[in-house]
Specification:
Elements lengths: L4 H37 L7 H28 L2 H15 L20 H31 L11 H24 L2 H32 L16 H28 L4 H18 L4 H25 L6 H25 L7 H26 L5 H11 L10 H23 L7 H14 L7 H22 L2 E7 L2 E11 L5 E9 L2 E7 L17 H8 L8 E5 L15 E6 L2 H8 L6 H5 L4 E4 L2 H6 L6 E6 L14 H10 E10 L8 H10 L3 E7 L11 E7 L2 H10 L5 E2 L22
Helix pairs in contact: 1-2, 1-4, 1-5, 1-6, 2-4, 2-7, 2-11, 3-6, 4-6, 4-11, 5-8, 7-8, 7-10, 7-11, 7-12, 8-10, 9-10, 9-14, 12-15, 13-15, 14-15
């Protein structure tokens, strides 16, 4: 007796819900575990944005291995062997639950921690993440063999997978992070993983039942579609490689200059996943031609403003331009990738090549680029590469082909010639910038010629970056795991109204110190540490009683604070990045350490880990001045961190916290801790009362167990020290809970 149409339709719908739900759950778990483990690892590595990028490489590598496993399993073994083997893998992966970091995980302090980070992730999450990674291609391949009316084109399930990824990413900073601590997040993820294994088992059961009903399905797929060419597979590789590299390059840019937190990491990743949702949807045929038309239009203001003339932009506008340009680039690449998807015969190979390319993109940014570039140059390179992948690229040696090369090449040679032949090129800065902006407009007219379009764009970016590098007078630039550091020479107007050269230290786009070069001025602390500012006031107020102080400084910068030291004092300097120590110690650039800190002890490594090893009640003054570009690593701001600092301070010791920040209201976090831990706390949001060379506005908080210990600061009238304001609109930060949304300015 045949089943009724209604029963058949219900079964067809139930199968779609089961398989789509499995993919949705798998993708959700994948993109929740990424920010979760990034947040677990940040405290061990000083909050560096490279932590997230290295984690991304690990995830991409395991994703590739998962896709390779799914490809081999589904193409080399019959169903009757696939299901038991995969079931055994699911059971084996339960040994890694509940997920957590290995005990006593301590990174190296004297060498690059990249490989330590990857090995730690491997021990913590590799097996469950491998299962999650293999789910998407394997479940889609099983669906193609299930006998469903949609089995011939299961790629629509990929949209369900990416929707799950999007929801997971957006829920993390706005739902999970504000309402659930890390311990509960780990348990919830482990529970979700068990649910996923049950769903995979249900899919396998449906496939097994269908195999029993239709035994001939065990035969090899005899799809009569044409064989894949190596050119087609290479194109898939490039179309997936470039967006992957762009993703990590843009993430590095964002997290370096704002804060190393999951909220900001997910912005590029969300756009990345959204592109997959759109290009594998039913609207792709309408969306892709529109994107191809809009990208050249948007590229004109992007080049002219974000690269040629970024100084006049608000930061949010600068960020917006980069995000939109990134989205257009990946939409073009992923759109071309979706349009060239093969039949189900090659489904797992298609996903395998995509995942392999994603892994290569991450590896290029993490392992290759830092060793061949001293700046984040892989990002603009991939912008140009994405333009080369627009449809219509032809390598035919005709007049049009050679013109596409000759025009940008002539502009490049002219620019290099001006660089070497003009004595004072910066005197013509405005004229050169206008020329580059006009050239940006010219890119629009090459939009149908991908080679010329990309080549001219690359020339404009190259010339603009070199022009800005020249204007910045960069003396030295280097790159480490913790970011890009640069020493620049600038000019100020001194007290005699004369021009005077000085040196600055930059981490990313944020100044981390400066020094005047005259012999009689090299000992004077400047910028955030100036004598008229909060730190100068503090040392002056306690001058009569601090001769034998033990002082700890977390965050070295150029070393300016050390010039407040006295002969009998003992100073200990904590710095996570050995490159910072090398620059601050090099007398070609800075002299603070050479002149003022000959007896200071240097500790390399994360401040919390280093301080935890110090004796209790050691310091009279502990200064927290650790920044990654413009952000204070969040693990240095938690309740447990504050308690650690006060265990290392003497009973009447003082904790000074530098909280100057463009984007985050850090005083809210410290105010909550002071209230909960019953600490006396004062804040000075210092603004110079008069124009003084290299004296800048800066915010500092001082805290003590005893209110009377801070009273001399108020009584001195040297600055505007105030009691900390109270806040009641946020939860206190702990090692288990932080929420950056609460403190966004």
């Amino acid at each position: 007796m045949n089943s009724s149409p209604k029963t058949t339709n219900d079964r067809q719908l139930a199968l779609i819900l089961l398989f789509a739900g499995t993919l949705f759950t798998s993708a959700s778990l994948m993109f929740i575990v990424q920010p979760l483990f990034g947040k677990l690892l940040l405290p061990l590595l000083g909050g560096s944005p490279a932590v997230w990028n290295t984690c991304m490489v690990f995830y991409q590598s395991i994703l590739f291995l998962g896709y390779l496993y799914a490809h081999a399993l589904s193409t080399r073994l019959p169903i009757k062997r696939q299901i038991p083997l995969h079931t055994g893998l699911l059971l084996l992966s339960f040994l890694a639950l509940p997920v957590a970091l290995p005990e006593n995980a301590i990174p190296p302090t004297e060498s690059d921690p990249t490989f330590w980070l990857i090995s730690t992730l491997f021990l913590a999450i590799a097996l469950p993440f491998f299962v999650v990674s293999s789910t998407s291609p394997l479940i889609q391949k099983w669906f193609a063999q299930i006998g469903h009316k949609s089995s011939e084109d299961p790629y629509f399930l990929y949209a369900a997978s990416n929707i799950g990824s999007l929801i997971a990413l957006l829920s993390y900073p706005f739902l999970l992070e504000p309402n659930m601590g890390l311990a509960n997040q780990k348990l919830a993820w482990s529970g979700g993983y068990i649910l996923l294994c049950l769903l995979i088992s249900a899919c396998a059961l449906q496939l097994w039942r269908h195999r029993q009903a239709v035994p001939q399905m065990e035969t090899t797929n005899t799809d009569d579609s044409s064989e894949l060419t190596w050119q087609q597979q290479l194109r898939w590789l490039l179309l997936a490689f470039v967006p992957s590299s762009l993703l990590i390059g843009l993430t590095n840019f964002i997290s370096t200059d704002i804060a190393s937190v999951p909220l900001l990491w997910i912005i590029p990743l969300t756009l990345y996943l959204l592109s997959f949702v759109l290009v594998f949807s039913k609207w792709q045929n309408a969306i892709h031609p529109l994107i191809l038309k809009l990208q050249p239009i948007f590229l004109v203001p992007f080049l002219a403003l974000a690269f040629v003339n970024p100084g006049d932009l608000k930061y949010w506008a600068y960020l917006f331009l980069h995000l939109v340009a990134f989205f257009f680039a990946i939409m073009v690449c992923h759109g071309e990738l979706a349009n060239s998807r093969p039949s189900t015969r090659y489904l797992t190979r298609y996903y395998l090549i995509m995942s392999f390319a994603g892994m290569l993109g991450g590896m290029f940014n993490t392992f290759v680029a830092p060793f061949i570039f001293n700046g984040i140059y892989e990002y603009p390179i991939m912008i140009v590469a994405a333009l080369l992948l627009r449809p219509g690229l032809r390598f035919i040696a005709n007049t049009a082909f050679w013109l596409q090369i000759a025009l940008p090449l002539a502009i490049l040679i002219t620019g290099i010639g001006l660089y070497f032949s003009t004595e004072n090129l910066l005197a013509h800065f405005d004229a050169l910038a206008i020329c580059l902006m006009l050239l940006s407009l010219a890119t629009f007219f090459l939009r149908l010629r991908p080679l010329g379009f990309a080549f001219l764009t690359g020339v404009i970016i190259f010339l603009a970056m070199n022009l800005h590098g020249l204007s910045a007078h960069t003396l030295y630039q280097a790159r480490s795991f913790f970011g890009v550091l640069a020493v620049r020479e600038s000019v100020l107007t001194n007290e005699q109204q004369q021009p005077e050269n000085y040196h600055e230290l930059f981490h990313g786009t944020t100044k981390h110190g400066a020094e005047r070069l005259a012999d009689n001025l090299q000992r004077i602390p400047l910028t955030y540490y100036s004598q008229p500012g909060p730190m100068g006031q503090l040392f002056k107020v306690y001058d009569s009683g601090n001769s034998n102080w033990q002082i700890g400084i977390v965050g070295l910068g150029a070393g300016a604070l050390t010039c407040y030291s006295k002969p009998q004092q003992q100073w200990t300097l904590y710095e996570i990045d050995p490159l910072v120590v090398n620059i601050a110690s090099d007398t070609r650039y800075f002299h603070y350490l050479d002149l003022c800190a000959k007896t200071a002890k240097m500790r390399i490594g994360d401040a919390r880990l280093s301080l935890a090893a110090e004796p209790e009640q050691q310091f009279d003054l502990l200064v927290m001045d650790a920044f990654s570009s413009d952000s204070v690593p969040t693990h240095l701001l938690t309740k447990e961190a504050i308690q650690l600092y006060f265990r290392k301070l003497k009973p009447d010791g003082i904790l000074a916290f530098h909280i100057t920040n463009r984007h985050l209201l850090l005083k809210k976090v410290l105010s909550m801790h002071a209230e909960q831990l019953h600490l006396a706390a004062l804040i000075e949001e210092f603004k110079p009362s008069q124009e003084l060379p290299l004296v800048v506005a800066t915010d500092w908080v001082v805290m003590s167990n005893r209110a009377e210990r801070l009273q001399p600061l108020i009584a001195s009238n040297l600055g505007d020290w105030q009691k900390m304001p109270l806040y009641f609109d946020m939860k206190p930060w702990t090692d288990d809970f932080t929420n950056i949304v609460d403190i966004w300015k």
